[in-house]
Amino acid sequence: MRHVISPLDFSVEELDKLLDLAAGIEKNPAKYAHACDGKVLATLFYEPSTRTRLSFESAMIHLGGQVLGFSSAASSSAAKGESVSDTIRMISCYADICAMRHPKEGAPTVATAVSSIPVINAGDGGHQHPTQTLTDLMTIRSLKGRLDHLTIGLCGDLKFGRTVHSLINALVRYSGISFVLISPEELRIPDYIREDVLDAKGVSYQEVERLEDVIGGLDLLYMTRVQRERFFNEEDYVRLKDFYILDKKKMSLAGKDMLVLHPLPRVNEISVEVDSDPRAAYFKQVQYGVYVRMALILTLLEVEV
Ligand code: NCD
Q1: Which of 8, 13, 97, 301 has the greatest CB tally within 10 Å of its CB?
Q2: Nearest CA to 92 among 22, 155, 42?
Q3: What are residue 182's DSSP bridge partners?
Q4: Is residue 133 lining ligand 1, measured as CB closer than 6 Å?
């Protein structure tokens, strides 16, 4: 039995296979409509979510399976003091696979120690978000045609943004990747990513503050929200929340093929006037998220179609 805690839980070859399966599902969803008949997915969400939870549920429903779960810690027995370990032992009796989001880094890993069903990390604190990364990889591969030889701008809250941490971990394994890390000084990527991942693997990157100066050289711009819930005080959040606003004017400095991605939810960091720009791919990204989660569920449940 396999769990997914980090994007590195898959080798590059396994990732390719998974993305091929997701692309096959996109082409012919009807073929997979009953692949998970009789199977149950549990979504255990101790933190707010719209896309990730509903996209997991949509994925399971489109495979013919059923879903159950909770969408906040307050509506589960966590509010009575139940541990993650006890909850997961129980859920193992109700479901065949589960996706867990938790505000504490490492909570899904704790769950894997006692779970008798596959556990998928659907976001743990400011740490990792592997299924968003699968979504991002599918989006990039589908719209750019490759995952290598790309100059990728990551912009916004690189300190607390778990989607950025997971994406960097996944992309450094492809050749010719170069990162432009665009953030205010206080929201730069954590040392454990800079030193243990980028420096350790000899990946090319630069850290800058001004988006305008670098946008013209990017193949892809990955915008992120300032992660309010991870700040220690509201004043810092208020000061930094509108540091970047991608608008038409900034888009006019970008190349004609530069893609704009965002894991969503968006707050102010992308102006709505950019939505109609053909380079804006963040709503397409949402659709890819369903196909890739369908592929992931099939892979972890070892269902062959
Ligand atoms: C992201 C997350 O939860 O980390 N959202 C998502 O899953 N699509 C990004 C965010 O909340 O800013």
Answers
A1: 97
A2: 42
A3: 155, 208
A4: no
Structure tokens at 73: 């810690």
Please indicate whether residue 262, judged by its CB atom, sits closer than 6 Å to ligand 1: no
pLDDT at 51: 93
Backbone angles phi, psi at 215, to 5 degrees: -60, -30
- How far does CA 140 lie from the centroid of its chain? 13
Q: Name the one residue in this structure whose structure tokens are 């804006």.
A: 280
Query: Ligand 1: does its nearest atom lie under 6 Å from the Cβ of 51?
Result: yes
Whether 101 is in the pocket of ligand 1, judged by its Cβ within 6 Å, is no
| CB of 151 sitting under 6 A from ligand 1 | no
Q: How far apart are CA 86 and CA 91, in angstroms?
A: 9
Asked whether 121 lines ligand 1 (CB < 6 A), one says no
Percentage of residues in the chain having pLDDT higher than 70: 100
* CA-closest candidate to residue 189, choices 210, 174, 208: 208
Q: 221 and 212 in contact (C-beta within 8 Å)? A: no
For strand 204-208 and strand 177-182, is the pairing parallel, antiparallel, or unpaired? parallel
Sheet holding 150-155, edge to edge: 204-208, 177-182, 150-155, 220-223, 259-261
Ligand 1: which residue has its CA nearest to atom 8?
263
| Closest atom, ligand 1, to C-alpha of 51 | 8
Residue 160 pLDDT: 96
Residue bearing tokens 């791919």: 281
- Tell me: the pLDDT tens digits for 176-185? 999 999 999 9
Distance from the alpha carbon of residue 19 to the mean position of ligand 1, in angstroms:
21
